[in-house]
Amino acid sequence: MAGNPESYFRQQDEPSWAARWGISDSDGTFEYALYLQRVLAAGRSENGVFGARVMWGTLDEIVDKLGTVYPDLARRDIALLHRAFGQLKFIYLQRRDVVAQAVSWLRAEQTQVWVAQRDEPRGEPHFEFDRLREMRRIIDNHNAAWESWFTVVGAEPHRVTYEDLDRDPVGVTLRVLDFQGLELPSGRTVQVRHRRLRDRLNADWVEQYIERETGGST
What is the pTM (predicted TM-score) of this model? Predict the structure, then answer.
């Protein structure tokens, strides 16, 4: 209904997408205009809606690379995105509890388990205070950067919090579809396919982090 959103524009993932689509040269390079064509095809659902997942650290890369495809609009962020993708709708997903977000990020990074039903653990999780502090700083900076960017380009995103999505995934999804002007066909329902990875270890790490960050004060 709302495209097939993946991290198509994450620099680390682009070579594997290009190889999957058979557009890489022998040295692994590929023409970005052709890559964009394949992304648009892969990211569309049957109704023609395109979706992609974009982290803040990827946005500048997208703008730079789209500028090589549409040089007349180079560095004009929103104009480039409109040219490449058509009418834009931004869904901004943010987590209120940034400490818990940092903990989840660190644990996934250490174990390489990002999706419970898909990934097999490839490492043991261990508490790292300094790394968590750095991740929290990155999250705060990226959240602030998104807010500034939306203001500069005059975009008003549909805002979703991780906590609301966890509490009511069906209701949040229906509101996202409504924001996009989409309606589920008769007889269709929203099926929840994912589950949270959080367990007691996450809660312990959050407690340890807060205790060390505050010097043990409450």
Answer: 0.89
